[in-house]
Amino acid sequence: MATIAVYSLKGGVGKTTFAINLAWASATISKRRTLLWDLDPQAASSWLISTDNKSRDAAHAIFSKDVEVRKLIQPSTVPGLDLIAADTSLRSLDHLFREMDKKKRLSKLIESLGKDYDRIILDCPPGLTETSEQVLRAADLIVIPVIPSPLSQRAMGEVARYLVQRGGSHAPILPVYSMVDRRRTLHRKALDEQPGWPAIPMASTIEQMTVRRKPLGAFAPASPPAKDFAALWTMVERQLLGN
Q1: Among 72, 123, 177, 213, which residue's beta carbon has the most beta carbons within 10 A?
Q2: Does the CA dihedral 59-64-139-115 come out positive or negative?
Q3: In what order do the strands lie in the sheet with 81-84?
Q4: What is the CATH number of domain 2-236?
Q5: Which residues pair with 91 in a beta bridge?
Q6: Under 8 Å CB-to-CB from 123, ≥6 apart: which residues?
Q7: What's the rounded Cα separation, in Å, for the pair 159 and 167?
Q8: How high is the pLDDT of residue 238?
Q9: Within 10 A of 230 (CB to CB), how many other CB atoms are there?
């Protein structure tokens, strides 16, 4: 079992798009037993693929041990992909983690699901917080969407520096350019500077995800962005397997 965190210090970089499409690829292309765990109180991933429209306000209770983690697992609209949905109760999760002072609470919960899943994808809230500390300790790979702009690239650098300053070992980072528009000089320059980074384009097909409430592979599998996400998933799998 491996845990992939989709994380960024900065918001608005496409984390939910990445999490949904990577989870779809895991379940559909690789046929992995996959769980998408939405940790962002905005609950965008949950809204896109949840089969349960009731607001339970119980996502926080998993961590305080008031609710057993398996009780909140639900099937998603994607065959083979399960979901732990987010809700507004997660807004106080940082406070709970500070009070508990248990740095590996999320890691231990994930470990308890190891017999049930091959891949767990974490859709993480932005920022360097108590929650991100938990995520960075639990992940086997950290996928960081980066818009090809100085501010977004600086945010990625801050995460890398933070991991170094923490000391000890940490999960490898996989930066991926997000929302790429090759018509823009700034974007082309960024891609030239980091030719080894994967890139996901800005595309109207991606915007259609919120209208159709489906991953790209479910309604536009032949589109360039869907193919790019499939290629990105192949890269993720190779990195997890050490190839």
Answers
A1: 123
A2: negative
A3: 73-75, 81-84, 34-38, 119-123, 2-6, 141-146, 173-180, 199-201
A4: 3.40.50.300
A5: none
A6: 6, 15, 16, 19, 20, 36, 37, 38, 39, 40, 44, 45, 86
A7: 13
A8: 94
A9: 18
Amino acid letter at 197? W
180: part of which helix (H) or strand (E)?
Answer: strand 173-180
Rounded distance between C-alpha atoms, residue 194 and residue 67, angstroms? 44
**How far apart are alpha carbons 18 and 46 in whole angstroms?**
13
| pLDDT averaged over 10-residue windows placed end to end, the chain, 243 residues | 93 94 98 96 94 76 84 94 92 85 86 95 90 89 90 77 73 93 92 92 96 96 97 96 77
Sequence length of the chain is 243
Looking at residue 76, the DSSP 8-state letter turns out to be: B
Mention every residue, 6+ apart, whose C-beta is less than 8 A from residue 120. Answer: 1, 2, 3, 4, 34, 35, 36, 37, 110, 113
Residue reference for tokens 């933070």: 162
Q: What pLDDT does residue 46 have?
A: 95
> 122 has which bridge partners?
5, 37
Domain boundaries, the chain: 2-236
Model pTM? 0.93
Q: What is the pLDDT of residue 133?
A: 85
